[in-house]
Write a structure and sequence with these properties.
Strand content: 5-15%
Low-confidence stretches: 346-354
Distance between the termini: 35 Å
Structural class: alpha/beta
Shape: globular
Number of strands: 8
Number of domains: 1
Order of helices and strands: HEEHHEHHEHEHEHHEHHEHH
Mean pLDDT: 92
CATH architecture: Alpha-Beta Barrel
CATH class: Alpha Beta
CATH topology: TIM Barrel
Length: 365
Amino acid sequence: MTRFQPRWLPFAMGSLPHADVGKAWETVLRYLPSIPSWPQLPRRAYRESMYAQFGERFPGITVEDQRVYVDRRKDLDAGLERLYLAYLEDEVDYGELAESYAAGLHALLAGRVALPEGVTAVKGHVTGPISWGLTIVDQNQRPILYDEVLADAVGKHLRLKAAWQERELARVFAHTIVMIDEPYMASFGSSFVSLSRDQAIGLLEEVFAGLHGIKGVHCCGNTDWSVLLSTSTDILSLDAYDYAETLALYPKEVARYLERGGILAWGIVPSGPAIESETVESLVERLHHAIALLVDKGVPEETLFGMGLVSPSCGLGSLKPDLVDRVLDLTAGVAAEMQRRYGADDADDADDAGEAGEAMEAASE
């Protein structure tokens, strides 16, 4: 964590709507040159959708007719034995993503993508165990997370997927970030998800334990943020455009998280039609208001202004390319403005604190 200072850099989740790998990478490097994220391209192939993409080699996994599921009629025991042996021996190669599942990643690994100067970290991503385990069902439509044996296998499988990805990215650039995408955490605690707090944390920590660099988790809806904040995550990414108020319900947990060096990736740029009516100025104002909600409850503003990233509220794979350009252009614009105000060197911290205080007063009015 000491190697990485967020400084309000632009940041994004991985999915893009492009079918062409080269054009997708052009978009990434144009708007996200400091923390480029390999593009997940679900429109290029179904295997690149967020649930199919990380299923390769899971026991009984079946991909057919735009559907991915676990077929219990297959020999699950043999598959489970291979998975557990790889896990126990830390055989990271088991988690390899084939090029047919991740063309954007392999373009980077093969040297077909030239990273620009000034890169801070390269970013990867994996679908989280809670979301993956609740979405992947067996042939009887029962989520595999509700099967004790398969639920344990999900965490170990995705741990190896994340670990392989981190290792390969580190060969391209020394500093890495691997994000766990957990949209289903928005349903945690509801009648739709039968999962305890300890189970949720345990699954996330299983995946995190395979990572040595910077790690993070993303949830694009409302959730019990205390669960995610209590994990070992280094970055918490949230939809701050619609759900900043819900994060402010947990000021003590946020303060402890920031105190240990945690970073907030503020998804203040809406990844949908709402972007049409927004500007850099309106989004910067909205971001200040989101931060003010926490400051008003006692979270130190200096820490909040020092540990932030700017991002879209969610992935962009379902949008039209021209809308993606607008979302990422505004993301870069908001990041540049926040850097101008608060991203200066330590010698300017006093001036930054004064400007932050003025902005907080305005946001509270």
